[in-house]
Amino acid sequence: MIDIFGPKSLLGLDIGSSSIKAVQLKDLKTGYELELFDFLPIDSDLIVENVVADSEKLSGAIRALVKKAKIKTKNTVISISGHSSVIIKRITLPDMTEEVLNENIRYEAEQYVPFGIDDVNLDYQILGPAEEPGQIDVILVAVKKDVLSSYISAVKDAGLTPVIVDVDAFTLENMYGANYKTEASRSVALLNVGASNTTINILKSGISAFTRDSSIGSRNHTEALMNQFSLSYEDAERIKAGATVNGITPEQAAPVLDSVSEDIVMEINHSLDFFSDSPEMEAIEGLWLGGGGALVKGLKEKLSDMTGYPVTLLNPFKDIKIPKGIDAAYLASIAPIATIAVGLATRRLGDR
Ligand SMILES: Nc1ncnc2c1ncn2[C@@H]1O[C@H](COP(=O)(O)OP(=O)(O)OP(=O)(O)O)[C@@H](O)[C@H]1O
Ligand SMILES: [Mg+2]
Fold first, then answer.
1. What is the model's pTM?
2. Strand spans (E) along 16-160
3. Which of 295, 331, 334, 339 for mutating ligand 1's site (highest number of atoms within 8 Å of CB)?
4. Which residues surround ligand 2, an ion (CB under 5 A)?
């Protein structure tokens, strides 16, 4: 059947440890138009170490966001992240048909997955012929079953229908593809600094060559302010966003934030070192920085000073048509927090 209305948009729901974001995109002939963007901060005890810690409260929060944003769509795309829940490996195998690979993937995966093979859901994608003749490059993804099912139940309990589960690192690729032109033979490193995770995906000619999640994020900024100035979580968050609270000015907070930014950049450097040791190594042209952590004053500058690469702030709405009635200036000012959600919202049923 030909669907004259084109593929239906899905709800991209990014369930982060500090806030839940919702994005929906309408397909235009030339790209996308923003149908919906909204977010809701959540308490820090709902998601702990990338695992749903309070399912009831989480589905309540999702329900609240659905109400606040007047979301009508049920079919939802979510994603999972975190080095202890998701394993992503690029592997090279002898050339084989999709059918044969399907039969062998469990066996092949066993040596790369540090958990019991029965405890994970496996997926893979054939990238194409490898450099060595007779070999193919494959991306292997293993997600812990219990982690996956905890997110799926929370989303279902909120009245939504999860139809695709992605991983944060890959959503960066889709968000980038929707907004930035990828030229052949260039490598770019996409970064998302969230509250609890920093995710990196290095694209070579538009294809993922390396991904890594590490468990440092902008929550470390918040906690450093809380400790240094004996502040509540909420007050520390307000200072991060530029307010003066309890007589503590952003200027006083700056050195504390800078010191955590250094730790985050050291971790990013560590990831870049991993990549430069890999056979895919190629000169990286620059770093693109997204996630709510990208908004912390001074992080972008630290990143370029300490890595030596030019750094661009990601704008996941850059090439997306913004309808009248949505405050474009406000959107631009907080855009990096929508990095993952926009990537999720580009997915369509049966797209790969
Ligand atoms: N305007 C701002 N200024 C400074 N920091 C900000 C701003 N907005 C958000 N942040 C910070 O960004 C972080 C949240 O980023 P993000 O929404 O990407 O994380 P998350 O998806 O909730 O977490 P994760 O995916 O790591 O579990 C918080 O630590 C928050 O303090
Ligand atoms: Mg996140």
1. 0.95
2. 19-27, 32-41, 47-48, 51-52, 75-80, 86-94, 120-129, 135-144
3. 295
4. 16, 194
Q: Output the residue whose Cα is nearest ligand 1's atom 5.
A: 296
> pLDDT tens, 159-208?
999 999 999 999 999 999 999 987 666 889 999 999 999 999 999 888 88
Name residues whose C-beta falls within 8 Å of residue 242's C-beta, 6 or more positions apart in sequence.
250, 297
82 lines ligand 1 (CB under 6 A): no
Average pLDDT over residues 274-288: 79
Query: In the structure encoding, which two tokens stand for residue 51, read together?
Result: 């695992």
DSSP 335: G
Q: Whose CA is nearest to atom 9 of ligand 1?
A: 292
> Could you give the 3-state DSSP secondary structure of residue 72?
coil
Residue 149 pLDDT grade (very low, low, confident, very high; cuts 50, 70, 90): very high
CA 189–ligand 2 middle distance (angstroms): 17
Asked if residue 162 has its Cβ within 6 Å of ligand 1, the reply is: no
DSSP letter string, 157-201: HTT-EEEEEEEHHHHHHHHHHHHSPPPTT-EEEEEEE-SS-EEEE
| pLDDT per position as a tens digit, 118-148 | 999 999 999 889 989 999 999 999 999 999 9
Domains parsed from the chain with CATH numbers: 1-85+145-180+318-352 (3.30.420.40), 181-314 (3.30.420.40)
